[in-house]
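Appendix B: complex inputs.
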Amino acid sequence: MAEHTRIHYQEELADLERHGLGGLDLVVTALERTMEATEHQDVELAQIVIGDDDRIDGRYLEVHQALITLLATQSPVATDLRLISALLHVIKSVERMGDQCVNICKLIPLSGHEPPADEEMLRRILMMGRQVRTQIAQAKRSFENRDIDMARDLVRQDDVVDNLNRECFHLALEIGDDADRREWAMTMMLAARALERIGDNCVDIGEQVAFIVTGLFREFEDASHPGEQLLDAPQA
Amino acid sequence: MSTPEAIAPGAPDLRSGPRKERIKDRAFRVAMLFCLAVALATLVALVAQVAVKGAGSLSGHFFTDYASSFPENAGIRAALLGTLWLMGVCAAFIIPVGVATAVYLEEYADGTKWWNRFIEVNIQNLAAVPSIIYGILGLAFLVRGPFGMGRVVLAGGLTLALLVLPVVIIAAREAIRAVPPSIREGSMALGATQWQTIWKQVLPAAVPGIATGVILALSRAIGETAPLILVGAPIFIAFDPTGLNSDFTVLPLQAFNWISQPQSEFKDLAAAAILVLLGVLLLMNALAIWLRNRYQQRW
Amino acid sequence: MSDRVDELSEEERHTEEERRQVGSGDGRRAATPEIHTAVRTSDAEHSRQARENVFELRDVGVAYSGKPAVAEVSMDIHRNDITALIGPSGCGKSTLLRSLNRMNDLIPTASVSGTVLYHDQDLYGPGVDPVEVRKRIGMVFQKPNPFPKSIKENVAFGPKILGMKDIEDRVERALKSAALWDEVKNRLDENAYGMSGGQQQRLCIARCLAVDPDVILMDEPCSALDPISTGKIEDLMMDLKERYSIVIVTHNMQQAARVSDRTAFLIVELDEEEARQGRLIEYDETEKIFTTPTDQRTEDYVSGKVG
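Resulting structure:
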């Protein structure tokens, strides 16, 4: 007869996981507003995103402190310990993703109130935004379900974002000699770069999923070894 | 013994030690068994002798007839009833008084006060006083003197009770002491008073030990002859004792009287009386043990 | 792969709705971050309750035959808290605990100095009956000590001697509160000694609960038990603190870390005559004691460097 004990602690840990992953929902909100502000050059909306980042930072501090307390008072081992370690990494990623959104929003007044200089670049940036949004949802789902395959698929999704980023880069190179257009293009590259960083953070979350399940801390795809998938196929 | 096998160097040698030690061990065991056999054999021989001599006289009329000058008419009726009455009085006195004294000494008395230490020391002494002294005590205080009740059942019973009371006190103290302090603590921590703790936890748990003490006491009392002689119990009684105030005699006295008679038939009767005494003793013990077991099984 | 993307689209729609619900609350203003020290919701409720003290100790000391065992302890114990007393052997934590329900009265050589206020009443004041004190402040001991009676008689003993009514109901409620009812409801008349150690200890807790105390003192309740039984009793404590105040002495500081709200750390020190006495060093929220203790001695003890 299996006996269940430490119910309060288990519930607390589960609550904390939900609360930490809830930060991803906050990021999705911020991202959607950011993309909308980018598309419509909405300075007010951008300011709101910047202000609301305090909520994401607050969530980070809350969850971080609670995780430290759990480590100190509950002596977690095995999967619990890996979960807490993973959550510490995840909320750091959440906080960074929030900061990336802020970075993008800070650009928006700079690009002025004129219509965008290059429709192609803008289109690609909006596509990156949608793709990254999907990535965040998938990262959250894969963490909740401890699904390694779904986590590893984040790499493929991130490749899409990386490709779009490269395309934007090439478009920016050929934007021409007009100073305003060049300025616009460079600020858009910064935005694209921020989106690409958000995608990388999602892959990091996926790696944490693999860590919880396998106990092995490996990068899915190392920047220094592009194109290689380092993580072994799962043993049956 | 088989030839010794080679032991690998460094490995522990687990074979038996030197022969001398084993012989001593065995010799010790044999000696102890021998002592046990001697004790048992003595007991068996005594009982067998009495049984052989007296079994023939155990008949129905032996129990229903009173003493008589003629052996064929003599019986132990008065003596048996007297013994039973006296045991009743004795038990009725020693159980409450003995247990109460033990409870006082163990639970309430402050061991540092001089009068408590005085009581402690004297209880041990009282257990060692020769029984005939109690006879004198009974004669002086109960039969004559302040109480002046005469040579009656109550006087005899109380004399015996005083004689064996220390046994009960000592046994009850041991039994109470054996109840773990954790039981007392658990009871007090619930808000029970000391008296509630003693009455409802300590004493019930001490019942087996107290019962043993009472058995020991009554077993001693049943065979006491000298103090009852001093108290003045007559030997020749031809009626049933009717109450606490009636005259009485007891089995040991009756046996003692019969032994002193010249006729050899009386000696057989004495043996029979002793057999009956043993029988009463065994029955009393069995009753007490049954009571003790029943109490133990309840929890 | 496309299936998964479709799946996720649905997922996205769900989270979309969730977000709208979350988003509608804050409108278009920046929210200030709320930094809580812990996300335990029960603790959040806790802090909202009135912080009433169940015990106030002022310079409390306990001595045996004049030799101090514990010196000058001052602390406030809050209601519905689990307060832990930790420290090395001989620091007087059990002695201090026993002074809270006047169990030290049972030891003739013990004497208590200082003031112990229980709901603003001096526990050792003139006219205070220790029996009355113990009816309200119960105790569970280190080694389970069920009475040599049946399970039912064990739990019913307290209510019976206190003259309470509805004994059967009380027994059932107490056994349920102690998470023991399901295991014993069909064998209430069996001897209590037939139970395992963990069950016996829960029986002792039920026995304590049956008289409706206000406070439960526990003197190393799990030190004689296996880890599973210990876990069950720790879970039980967390449930019980809703209705009772609990003070626990434990030499297992991980246990103190797991269950308690506040922790008091005592040490042994040698006084002028080389006699050992206990002293309170630090008393604070458990989280603080185990993450950022103020005193170096506390830090050394909780990190296991000094025992």
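Chain B is about 70% helix and 0% strand.
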